[in-house]
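A favour between colleagues. Tell me how you read the following sequence-structure pair.

===
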Amino acid sequence: MKKADLVIKNNILNLKISDNYSIPNWREIFKWKFRGQETINEYFIDNIPDIKFSKYPTILSVNIILSKNDKVFKLDFFANEKPIKLLYHENKIINHIIIDNSWYPLIEENINEIEDLIKEYKIKDFKFDLSTYILINKNLNDHPVIKNLTLIEETEKIEKRSLINYKNDYFKGELYDYQEKGFEWLRFYANNNVGGILGDEMGLGKTIQIISLICHEVNQSNVPNLVIVRSTLVNNWIKEFKKFSSNLKIYTHHGPNRSRSYKAFEDHHVTISTYDLASIDLPLLTDINWNLIILDEAQDIRNPDAQRTKSIKILDKKAGFAVTGTPIQNKLKDLWSIMDFTNHDYLGNENEFMDKYSDDFSDGSLIEPLVRPLILRRTIEASGKTLPDRIDIPEFIQMNNNANEIYESEKNNFLNNYKNNPLPMLIKLRQVCTNSMIINDEQAWDEDDTKFVRLIQICEEFIMNEEKFLIFTSFTKAIKSLSNLLKRIYNIPVFTLFGETPIDERQSVIDDFSNIKNSSCMVLNPAVASAGLNIVSANHVIHYNLEWNPAVIDQASARIYRIGQKRNVTVHYLVYSNTIEHYIYERLEAKRQMAEDTIIGVDSKPYIEDFVKFLNKN
């Protein structure tokens, strides 16, 4: 007769046979305890621990958490809402456990789910890296056994785990607490060869966070890094690197005198180039296996069919990061294209994605949990960083009789002909709302125009207080006319920044404006100056006419309302009542409300039929 003791070891019932231990199957224990079977694995039991036995199995659940190790996530197991430790035996999870001095069988289907999870993602010792975490998050609906997934954006947890200091021989800046957490998030992802989107709200200092990451990477490796920016922002990035870094070897691959050899990339820590050159000089850029590739204003690759987008996605890299506060400007495919760069294949190919998601906000909310681990976005309010007060002041103005007659004529023309080619007529309506002279080359600027009169009144107060201000308008004629008129009326320095301003002179225009001690003005095109520029020497903005896309307006305002601003800011919107501007303003407010709690951007296209209804009411 074979005999054994039943003993507890690691919260598991074991058979102790002399000095050896074996783990029986739960069915053997169950039959012995509840079905009258005399033996367990053919052993008669001499001694039994003082525990209770349950007929009913307990259900396992899995939490995925960050471990104390910087590179590792782990599976945490729960049963009866209590943490438990699962053990392997002969490459199988042991199918019974003791919880609170009671023995429970585990459901085999439950165990099979966990074993399938481990097998599918090649998890060892219940631990895995960030790239595996991202894949599990992508397929989370396929794994109901997972009850809780730690959110990566809880960056304070990452920060507490890490002993890495952002300060080194290359970085000389100082990061705010939220920026340091942003550095930790970026470093954590780069360390795991995983890319992502840095989508902080405008004004929170995305550039300095990227520079701190690059300096850390250079401190670890000599593999070159590539920063791709708009051609208008090359000088701005050079200036920011000089401000926040030292000892970095920086090469600017830009202009007619740029190198035609990849050796220039190898000889420098960082190469700054442009979106256009990414396709023009693709053969050169593909000669390098880049460490990090950074895309500034990454919404510029939202069109997956554009040559620049295709070229950038060909480049080899350890990890890619997209810097943009608006990953979607027109449609969900914008986000797909950006994430196809940062995390290739994560959202499937383009056709798979478009078959699964339409371009409306309900699908935007569906996709957000999927992409959330790959996007870090903080608002000014949530960051804990206090900026001065910002006051937004919409002013609804009545047209004078002359402007109203011209507007009504153009409105009627639109209503009678919009089905043929509406966009030029829409532009004309917006031009009339800026100043009627814009649509008539022979007419001088109407200085009696109600909006211009109100502009002068607002500017007088700024000038009396010796404050600087920006005026945004979409139209070149308006920029030139306003510039000349303000110089004549107030005798103050007036600067302009628009499409005709040479790219390599734009940063110096901003510097000259910023260096003036007294009141001065800059008249800008929002499309040229809406991203990446820092003009905190001014503290007032006037939107002389409105853009269809709220992101363009918000980015333009953020040129002055950002970290470094020390004075209260006012943002004025001059809107002609019951006109196309009134319609645009109402849509902008509705879209802002819709997008308030989401990383997803908003559609910026004019809805013609909706606008026609508005015109017929007004």
